[in-house]
Amino acid sequence: MLKVTNLHATVDGKEILRGINLEVKSGEVHAIMGPNGSGKSTLASVLAGNEKFEVTEGSVEFEGEDLLDLSIEDRARKGLFLGFQYPVEIPGVTMANFMKLAVNEQRKFRGEEPLTAAEYLKMMREKAKIVELDTKMTSRAVNEGFSGGEKKKNEIFQMAMLDPKLAILDETDSGLDIDALRIVATGVTKLHTEQNATVVITHYQRLLDYIVPDYVHVLYKGRIIHTGDKSLALKLEKEGYDWLINEQQ
Amino acid sequence: MQNAILEQLPTLHIALDRPIEGRSEQLYRVDDPSCLELKLAADARLKLLVVRSQAATSRVQIELGERAELVLAELFVADAETTVEVQQGAESRLQLTSLQLGGGVGRYVVNLMGAYAESRVNGLFALGGAERSSLTIRTNHQVADCRSYSEVRGLAGGEAVGRFDGMVYVAPDAQRTDAFQQNRNMLLSEKARIDTKPQLEIYADDVKCSHGATVGQMDQEAIYYLRQRGLDEQQARRLQLTGFADDLVMRCGCEEMCAALLEALNAKLNRI
Amino acid sequence: MQDIEMTMAKENENDILQELTNREYEHGFTTDIETELIRRGLDEEVIRTISAKKEEPEWMLERRLKAFRHWQTMKHPTWGHLDIPEIDFQDIIYYAAPKPKKKLGSMDEVDPELKRTFEKLGIPLEEQMALAGVAVDAVMDSVSVKTTFRETLKEKGIIFCSISEAIREYPELIQKYLGSVVPYTDNFYAALNAAVFSDGSFCYIPKGVRCPMELSTYFRINAAGTGQFERTLIVADEGAYVSYLEGCTAPQRDENQLHAAVVEIVVERDAEVKYSTVQNWYPGDKEGKGGVYNFVTKRGLCRENAVLSWTQVETGSAITWKYPSCVLLGDNSVGEFYSVAMTNNYQQADTGTKMIHIGRNTRSRIVSKGISAGKSQNAYRGLVRVNAGAENARNYSQCDSLLIGSQCGAHTFPEIDCRNRTAILEHEATTSKISDDQLFYCNQRGLSTEDAVGLIVNGYAREVLQKLPMEFAVEAQKLLALQLEGSVG
Fold first, then answer.
1. What are the chain B neighbours of C428 within 8 Å (beta carbons)?
2. Mean confidence (pLDDT) of chain C
3. How many CB pairs under 8 A join A and B?
4. Nearest-CA distance from C397 to chain B in Å?
């Protein structure tokens, strides 16, 4: 599904990613861990097409196509979803209007008819249940005045609405209390199928109690320095990153 | 201008010799009045939409009796010039929305003359090309215990120039005044210009007065976020404009009026 | 029961009010020294006399005459939120200098009467100044009396002297910079000042030099019926830094005295200038009689990466009219304006700033705290302008007003004129009063109403006071407390 080869990227001339190699297949769950500033969020942003970052070397293939050639929205329409670490507030624009537009854009892209109002409302009600989101939230402006937990639930709600092939969740667990974490993580697990894939970026092992990864990668100074299975996350939680970093040097 | 909702509205005919009485739920319209005098008797209620489709000068004088309620909107689709003066009696309520979609000059002077009167005067201009808008809102708190609330938003693209001149005046002894004034603007193009003066003149100490003004641009982070969800850049921008402008119009105080104004606004936003 | 207590508290407050409003202007004394005056009135002859007394070169006289001729074509401005009585410009003495008995060689030779004046003012002109690290160019009326630390400064190549001396000794610098930021055509009082200025300070910090001490000028109006028209010019050359303090006082007199100063600051590339003012000119008496008319033009020009920061505490003068401004010409330059303006009794103030964004990535910040008491009128007036080429300009303005008593006025007249879409500009303003709850709370904790008001006002002004150098901050706090405490009723 996704094949990242020797990916280098810079921001303001500073190199953050220094040769990432990563392959994600359908049905897989990958976790990316690593100390602060290792480039985890940058990787997510680059894959989503954030124009702040410049790709200087390497390639990314998504569903057999060159991802780097596509605009931000076309990547999204093809099924790449980024769950933002800091979801953006958009004053005055209601969630319901925003999602309707997004869902129908995706349908148009796939050559499908737009949803009727009734179909859309039904879909919204169903999907909201997945993350125990009060449907009243959908009449509020996008993320405006949402609590930290509500913002993250809202990201997973949108993921459910858009049904992506590949979901990259950037620190979706940060700032969540234990109940919200359970709801968000269970939501992600419910959405996971053999046809899609999930990449979770996280600092903490606790998220991985719910979302069980097939692979755990450790990112350090813009490179993946180690890959293991879910037991690696437990070891990292206990022993930190030093042993891996020392191994490097 | 095509506006299905507007077409259906009945025209208001006013007998000049006596004040309007009774509470009406009907929304009326008046087209390009050059001179309009409205008197609402005590406890009366009226909803009125004034359409300005000619580049002409006009003067509107309004008197609200005690507890009278007026929901008024002025829709500018041409470069018209109006002066609207309102005298508000005790406990009266004014909800005024000025929507400038083709440039124009709107001067609104509200005199709060009776205790517990409340005025809400909102304005929005959405400009493109070489259009020029000037919106002046002066709220005079002449007596104690009144409230005023004023929100003005400006969108300027092309080579448009948008001006806001706001003044909240609190007379000596107009104690316990509660006044709020906010002005937000978005510049959409390189040559557009915004000139804003949100002013306060206060002669009483037991008051709650504040104002704010901002000039900014489209939020690039928000555009990125929207595009990540599959909207193209055009849609993302348009959605932000909608978010910026719509809710002000939606607070105009009358659903039908709101629908008519939104239709006109949407048509304009598509062209900026 | 509670009501009775409240009434008693109110009565108490009234006593305190009575007591404090009766406090008189602390600096209201006159110095009995021989003063050299010229005749009343203004014409070309007077200007020639001033120029001659200052032993100025011909080009300077020419400049003055040009400014005077232009001034004659101008009208007194009326746009301020001020009630200015008509000023008879022919009834003013435009030059007054204390007559030195002989040339002064050292500190000991300074006229003891004059020294006592400075001591009363609390100016540390004597030896302890060395310890305090303050260099003072004290201006009494129009002539620079004594400049200290010139030698120390000279070693670094810093020039700090009276403007008259600079005209004689550094003509090339003066010709290059004088009038370059505030031309004589700028406004009515700038033109008048350019024609008749009698003295002031000149400061030049050479390239890359960080001025090791805070430079300070004390202005004081002494002679009756004289106007003070000082002219200050500060030039921070590339990469230089200086912090400059200006303090003003005036003796108590029944008639109004006119003060129309011009301050010009040139901040070259990578340089930084901090300009702090504590202004407590005589504000007039409780009935509004007398007091200084303070009509000042202050402006600085910032080149690339330059920083100019204005801080002012305005408590004096019958009428204050001044707008220290920044022209942000160079890319990445920064302008700041921090102001506390306090008015009491019949004082009027119309003060604020202009931030003109011309260069790219220019930033400005405005924090204005107005405090109105008595029957005074206090207005903030500001302009933030972003020109078409000023990409990514940023401004944040905060203008707060505090009203003490119900007979004063607090006004806010800001303008934002934005011609570049990449700019982000924010303005906020609030109006408040000292609430009974706040006072009650403080009283309950054992503070007198007087102390509570001082505390609350100083807290309110804190953000600005913090920007002042230590010695000034203490003085400013005292001034605020002194003039405000009694205003609560």
1. 210-212
2. 80
3. 74
4. 9
Alpha-carbon span C129 to C136, nearest angstrom: 9
Q: C271 in helix, strand or coil?
A: coil
What's the gap in Å between the CA of C394 and the closest CA on chain B? 10
Could you tell me the CATH number of the domain that includes residue A116?
3.40.50.300
Domain of A157 in residue numbering reads as 2-248
Q: Which of C122, C140, C144 is nearest to C132 (CA)?
A: C122
For A48, which of B222, B228, B242 is closest by C-beta distance?
A: B228
Q: Which residue of B has its CA nearest to C430?
A: B210
Question: Percentages helix, strand, coil for chain B, rounded to the nearest 5?
Answer: 15, 50, 35
Gap between the Cα atoms of B126 and B228, Å rounded: 27
Beta strands in chain A (DSSP E): 2-11, 14-24, 29-33, 53-62, 65-66, 80-83, 90-94, 141-142, 166-170, 197-201, 215-220, 223-228
Q: What is the pLDDT of residue C130?
A: 36
Q: Beta partners for B88? A: B64, B112
Determine which of B229, B235, B244 to mutate to test the interface with A (most A C-beta atoms within 10 Å).
B229
Q: Residue A175 corresponds to which tokens in the numbers above?
A: 């700032």
**What is the band of C22 on the pLDDT scale with cuts at 50, 70, 90?**
very low
Torsion, CA A39, CA A41, CA A47, CA A50, rounded to 10: -110
Q: Tokens for C187?
A: 């406004």
Interface residue B244 vs chain A (CB under 8 A): yes
Q: How far is CA A111 from CA B136, B175, C290, in A?
A: 50, 64, 83
The answer to whether B13 faces chain A, any CB pair under 8 Å, is no
| Cα separation, C13 vs C32, whole angstroms | 39
CA distance C436 to C441: 8
Task: Answer for the pair C208, C435: CB distance below 8 angstroms, yes or no.
Answer: no
The total domain count for chain A is 1
Q: Is the ipTM of this complex over 0.90?
A: no
Give the model's pLDDT for residue C11: 41
Cβ atoms of A131 and A187 within 8 Å: the answer is yes
Q: Render pLDDT for A33-78 as a digit per residue (tens, 0 to 9).
A: 998 889 999 999 999 999 889 999 999 999 999 999 999 989 999 9
- The pair phi, psi for residue C76, each rounded to 5°, is -65, 125
Every domain of chain B and the residues it spans: 4-269
User: What whole-number distance in Å separates Cα of residue C93 and Cα of residue C108?
Assistant: 31
One-letter amino acid identity for C124? Answer: P
Determine the pLDDT at residue C79.
Answer: 85
Q: What is the pLDDT of residues C221-273, one digit of tens each?
A: 555 555 678 899 999 999 999 999 887 665 555 566 888 999 999 999 999 99
**Touch criterion met for C and A (3+ Cβ pairs within 8 Å):** no
CA distance C291 to C257: 6
Rounded to 5 degrees, what angle do the CA atoms A216, A217, A219 make?
150
The predicted-structure confidence for C56-99, as pLDDT tens digits, reads as follows 999 999 999 999 999 999 998 888 888 888 888 888 888 876 65
Give me the amino acid identity at C298. K
Contact A130, A156 (CB under 8 A): yes
